[in-house]
Amino acid sequence: MKAKAILMLLVAVCVMLAMQTRSFAGSLQGKEAGQNKGGTISPNATSKCKFTFTSGADNTFIKYCVTANGNITQFESPEGHEHIQVFDVVEGYGICDFTDADHNVSYFDYADQGDSRNWGLVTVLSNTAKSIKLARTTSDGFWTLTQTIAEVTGSAPAAQITMALKNNTGKDRDVVLLRTVDVDADGQISNNLDATLSSAFGWNSSISEHGYGLVLQDAGTTQSGLFLGTALPTPNSPDPCMVDTSLGPFTNTDGTILMEYGLIIPKGGTKTVKLAYRAF
Amino acid sequence: MKNFILTIGALILAATAVAAQSGGSSHISKDGQAAPQDANCAFTFSSGSGVTSIKYCVTGNGNIAQLEIPLGIPLISQISQLEGYGICDLSTDIAYSNWNGIEVGAWHPAIVKSHNAKSVKIARTTGDDIWTLTQTFTALKGAPAGVKFAMALTNNGSVPRDVKVVRYADMDVAEQIPNNFDATDNTAIAWNSLFVSGEPFGVVLQNLVAVPRVGFALAQNTADPPDACHPVDNSAPGLEQNVDGSVELVYSTTVRPHSTVTLTGAYKGR
To answer: What is the pTM (predicted TM-score) of this model?
Structure first.
């Protein structure tokens, strides 16, 4: 009974959001895209590695890189098994501000797939051998996304992502914050894909010669009461205000996995979610 | 929309905070020996909160009879409670296994070596005294929630022996039969797809041995436990949807005389 209630509500919120936003999507590119406060064009989306992190060996090996804009565009684990940097590299973050029901606004940066052209410059707040912390404010000044991407070492190494989203306005705001990747498990474009409430994963069955996978999983301590994993049968990451609900699992598909978080962020406040990429 | 999200959040938290059922009574003697066929919980552990919470119990014979991730979401079948370990001595082709209530080969009673609030260590020797399996169960730190098992296998004999070691569990995710099953080289998965059937949770059985090719994972398209000497006989050929299946890890190694090899793995939430 409780399961059905949760699922019905999760489906409903996705459908409602999609219905609210489809009519707005056409105007998004013209009205909201473009320039930041300083009048300069947002930095181009890129998949070029800027910060690289490596540790371990054999099954505990992990190597991943982060772009100047905070995208994870390379992820190798265990040694010799790459899951993201294959042909077009699509990985990144997105926000849908649906505070005003008839005026939803998308912000995203998906590396090779491009960005929403409504972001400001990125500021590197700190950089160590184990982590990188970057902040980026939307060009309308409404939001500041601070990402900390840290290396988790050990028997199950991971790239852990902490995304802290600050509402810079004087009004409480409702958003969906998401992380997404075009997974190409072990260098293979077509994989199996599916999702649970707290994870989304792409993999190749062990019967193949490429029996590896990549999972994007909630890492707990989230400040969101609403979150879910999603697998999509397309390599293109979605507009954050137009995430379709697809029924998995998908087999032999060039697809995308993502985690979505529903957040209500008070004026001047910050909400944080934590998730991780891990090979399996 | 705001109230809607708050309602959903409250429901999710409520769903994941349901108290777990308690295990049955187990019989551990004063000297730490477990009754040979005792399949009941002897040691119960719980930690964490929300989606990273976990509760599991270990029998006196070293089986994980119950596993909930998060609290209130059982993953190991609560009907069969089949979970356990198997050894195949490749030099004799003799199997020794205990799948919690189903025992193959001769075993001495298990002995509880130590236990505290965070872990339990249980040793058991085969009836022919050739092998001693010492298992340690510990909750994983951080996310995802999980329980790690270390299986230290000692060759008590005077010649080196090739051996297979198997870990297996009959999974009924969120008390549902059937589920989806598949495996990569290192990880076997059982789960319910989001929006399709059952509560959308899952579990993995993952090889944590750092050296490549010592262990591999597989999903079985049956709930029945494997033959430790033929562990891949019921291996699923690929993704299996809507089956009553199980997950398995198989380790292959050589143990020198009077030496010990430790094989590690974990059950984790997905």
So the answer is: 0.89
